[in-house]
# Entry
Amino acid sequence: MAELGTREELPAEYLDHLAAKNLVPLWPSLRAVLPYGKPAPNTQPVLWRYKDIRPLLLQAGELTPIEKAERRVLALGNPGLGVDNMMATPSIYIGMQLIQPGETAPCHKHTPSAIRCVVEGSGGFTTVEGEKCPMEKGDLILTPSGTWHEHGHEGSGPVVWMDALDLPLIYYLEASYCIEGESQPLTNLPDASQTRYRRAGLVPYKSLAGGRAPYPLYRYPWIEVRESLEALEADTGADEMIWLAYVNPETGTECLPTLGFSAAMLRPGETARPVRRSASSVIHVIEGEGEATVDETEFVWEEDDTFTVPTHAAVTLTNRSARHPAFLFVVDDAPIQRKLLFYEEFPEA
Ligand code: 1HN
# Structure
């Protein structure tokens, strides 16, 4: 590995001439943009406790009427990426959104893709392309790029969900924008998880002829995901994490082109070491309590907490409870990396 020349070695006058012509010497910065062996992430492993977020989010509800917010959200900023940049990881935006009974968040569509994972409360809903999706704890709702979506709340008490978007990437591409729309007419049918995609392995017959919409399923009810994880217990080795990926039921591949979603279960007292991956991720606790080690950083997590895993980081997850299972929801950018053909997994030797 040759030692590369530095800026300091170059005559000041030469550097001035370069700057005047909008030119930059690569070699002093080459190792920074292309490190040897593995990336050098700025992303920090960070834990956000729901205990800390909740009172501040409820306070936002008092300070800012929904009309003044459009979306009443506290975004989770990774200090390593600049907290104000609203990036949990370089590709993943995460926010906690509050909606109070009777409030509505107006209809719009945008180039970034979004999902919600419900944290607390009952009676919230998101309407996506006319399909009204109930929001109960742990439910995953997709609002892919270009789909009309709006939120409401017909129950009582606060409803909070976690938003995850590919916003940092789309914003970096200078391709992020939205269009406002009128409130959508409803289909008056239950969402597709209750109708066209009631069961894994069955699709509407006409799907075989092709031509299905790119996003056939917007809602993945948590009760069914939870049951499906529990059903895997007997089938999963003690040293392996029970882990299900959310997929498009028509294609069997990731739900969105950019971000991937999965749900994991840790049995009581279990410690899991999921395979180290090149993707960055955000882990949200749907249920349970435990510990995590992300490279050298240790966290103690509780229900509704959220933490980040930088690219290439080694992760250990422990369920602290001797009696109850723990359930985790994972957002990652593996779909982007797979499309760009550099996604890697590093099984332990
Ligand atoms: C958005 O459209 C929502 O629709 C939430 O609820 C958070 C953050 C950035 C850009 C758009 C929503 C968002 C967002």
